[in-house]
Amino acid sequence: MDILLQLIDFIVHVDVHLREVVAQYGALTYALLFAIVFVETGLVIMPFLPGDSLLFIVGALCGADLLSLPLAMGVLLVAAIMGDQVNYSIGHRIGPKVFQWEDSRWFNRAAFDNAHDFYEKYGGITIILARFMPFIRTFVPFVAGVSAMTRSKFTRYNVLGGFIWVVGLTLAGFWFGNLPFVQTHLSKIIWALILVPGLLTLWGAWRARRQTS
Fold this sequence. Notes:
mainly alpha; 10 helices
């Protein structure tokens, strides 16, 4: 319980904690940032780590000359791309083993084929948009691997989506993160970065379910 509370505190007050990390550990901060983004995007069991808010705060710290913008973006981009690739590989490797019993209740061949076809047709935009959706961005690469989306196609959109996500949010923090208004309402902005994409995702899923029911 204490660990969960500490994690929630870190996510909500990521700006404060990152400043403390920079002050105490200096260049080792880049290794921590790499680890957080890599684990959040690469391991399905860790979807709750900060993503959008972390990138925004890192940009703000770069704007305050506490971190190097090119180095931070480079580290975060490599972590985001590698994380998704690992996640895809796990899904791709586990999928055939989990679903090898074609006539069992655990496997629906038609559903599997439909998922594969969906990712081949629309998976690219899904991979890009998922970058901006908490929780969803952790599961999409795994599902792409399970559904046997072509690795070359996944990699193209993984790199593109990772670039847009990392560079876009980090630059937003760099340009706007240190404005007086933003600093005054930073906790609300962090909550918005966490909740708004999640709520939009739930709303979209609810609408899709209504249309299919």
